[in-house]
Amino acid sequence: MRYYLVGGGVLLAMILAGVVISMKSGKTASPLAGSLPVVADLPESEPLKSGPTAPAPPRDDVFLAKAEPLARKFLAASTVEQ
After folding, report:
1. Is the Cα torsion angle 39, 40, 43, 44 positive or negative in sign?
2. Which residues contact 66 (CB under 8 A, 6 or more apart)?
3. Rounded Cα distance, 14 and 20, in Å
4. How far apart are CA 4 and CA 25, in angstroms?
5. Cα 75 from Cα 82, distance rounded (Å)
6. How far apart are CA 68 and CA 61, in angstroms?
7. What is the largest CA-CA distance in the chain?
8. 45, 46, 58, 70: which is deepest, by most CB within 10 A?
9. What b/e readout covers 64-77, taking b as 16+ CB neighbours within 10 angstroms?
């Protein structure tokens, strides 16, 4: 039992030492960060062509007028079939 406890402590110390050493190494950016294209350097694409647009959502009062009877019927149901 004592060996497991000592081994766990040594393993924990090694992990903590690795984390501290990697944080102290001073690397702040990945090596690939400089090779990525900047958005401003990309060629401009064509604007999206306008197509059919989604219908505008109904006004709140219209939606509530349609939804209220359905909600009342749902809440008044006593069985799944209703």
Report:
1. positive
2. 58
3. 10
4. 31
5. 10
6. 10
7. 73
8. 58
9. eeeeeeeeeeeeee
Q: What is the pLDDT of residue 25?
A: 78
- List the structure tokens of 4: 């497991």
Length of the chain measured in residues: 82
Tokens linked to 62: 């219209």
Structure tokens at 25: 């190494």
The whole-model pTM stands at 0.32
Distances (CA, A) of 81 to 61, 74, 77, 78: 29, 11, 8, 9
Tokens of 42: 């990309």
Q: Which residue has the tokens 């079939």?
A: 81
> For 15-54, how does the pLDDT look when each residue is reduced to its tens digit (9 = 90+)?
999 988 888 876 655 555 556 555 555 556 666 566 677 7
